[in-house]
Amino acid sequence: MQLDTKLIHGGPLLDKYTGSSSVPIYQASTFHQSQFAESQEFTYTRFGNPTRQALEETIACLEFAKYGYAFSSGMAAISAVLLNFSHGDHVVLCKDIYGGAYQLVTEMFPKYGIEYTFVDETDLSTWEKAIKENTKGFYIETPSNPLLTITDIKGVVKLAKQHNILTIIDNTFMTPIYQNPIKLGVDIVIHSATKFINGHSDVTAGLVVTSDEEIAKTIYKTQKMFGSMLDPYDCWLVLRGIKTMNIRMEKEVENAAFIAKELQKQRKVKAVYYPSLANHKGKDVHFAQASSGGAVLTFDLGSYENVKTFFENVTFPIVAVSLGGVESILSYPFTMSHAVIPEKERLDLGVTEGLIRLSCGIEDKHDLLNDLIKALDHVKSESCQKKRVI
Ligand SMILES: Cc1ncc(COP(=O)(O)O)c(C=O)c1O
């Protein structure tokens, strides 16, 4: 089955009880048990719900996995996976990582006696050097948020297999459309479905998939114990979003590739980070494991003042936390997605005060570009320092 067909027919399209053309929202917390002492498919929504099951089967199919689970947010999904490490375990993670995941690791792991090390994700030797006797997990995010750095997924997986280490990836930026980590040997794939998968900035959701039965049992039990499952209405919205994901993303990626190239030509833009740009550091590795540069790019205006002027003069993109909507979204990682990282570490990571992240929507690319250029016109030229070579 080709991708476009899979997006419509990969999971259950029809309701098996009525044949309705969209799986209904089974808005029920519990289910009548005619044989009260016997188990049945659905008993209580925290344990399972037909609308959620449809979404879980769909994401498993799209990610070439056997099992899928839907959570109330990307962070709920990340927590369900990472909080299954145990006292004395050690986990190695990318240093350029989503701020919420960073906070979870640095604040919760010590409470549970779980050790962690952040490494330069772009250098395989740093993953190897970080391995200790008690290393149990590798956590990848590629392309990373917000600098779009690239990790060699196959390289990390190979290393992990040699040392019996579990591999986990946050695949939010690429979506199942452009990167399928299970096929590359990764054990657990996580998504913030709040972003491209739902795609309309009206739901928070998280997804986890795996093909390993034991891992699947653990994830299911955690979803049930934490009570962090996605509710039926939001499952239905995400299912609806998935049907148009490919055509939405095609346009969003086209816009991002165009804008990234055009912004590179602008004197007031110090640097542009986008995986398909010729000078992007991880470009070759990225295109060996993914089929698109994605719809997110980051650029540097050099200072807070320049960002302020730029944001005050931009019209079409909304300025907001998040990405992956049909509307273009500008974010300021320094005080938004990465604010929870202590300032010195943030700056060391390259999350500076001049950095802007743009998630391209489906608007006309020339309208978008003209709007960005118009806002750039207001930024004072002398306040932009010399162009940096990435
Ligand atoms: C890469 C990435 N992973 C995970 C998350 C967390 O997802 P959520 O906000 O749905 O909890 C985000 C949110 O911005 C993200 O960008």
UniProtKB/TrEMBL annotation:
PROSITE patterns from the xrefs? CYS_MET_METAB_PP
Name the enzyme group at the top EC level.
lyase
Top-rank taxon, per record? Bacteria
List the EC numbers from the record.
Answer: 4.4.1.13
Q: Which cofactor does it need?
A: pyridoxal 5'-phosphate
User: What SUPFAM superfamilies does this protein map onto?
Assistant: PLP-dependent transferases (SSF53383)
Signal peptide annotation: none
For this protein, the record's CDD domains field holds: CGS_like (cd00614)
Q: Where are the transmembrane segments?
A: none
* A Pfam cross-reference name: Cys_Met_Meta_PP
Q: What keywords were assigned to this record?
A: Amino-acid biosynthesis, Lyase, Methionine biosynthesis, Pyridoxal phosphate
Carries keyword Amino-acid biosynthesis?
A: yes
Q: Which InterPro entries match?
A: Cys/Met-Metab_PyrdxlP-dep_enz (IPR000277), Cys_met_metab_PP (IPR054542), PyrdxlP-dep_Trfase (IPR015424), PyrdxlP-dep_Trfase_major (IPR015421), PyrdxlP-dep_Trfase_small (IPR015422)
Q: Which family does it belong to?
A: Belongs to the trans-sulfuration enzymes family.
> This protein is called what?
cysteine-S-conjugate beta-lyase
Annotated source species: Bacillus salipaludis
Record lineage? Bacteria, Bacillati, Bacillota, Bacilli, Bacillales
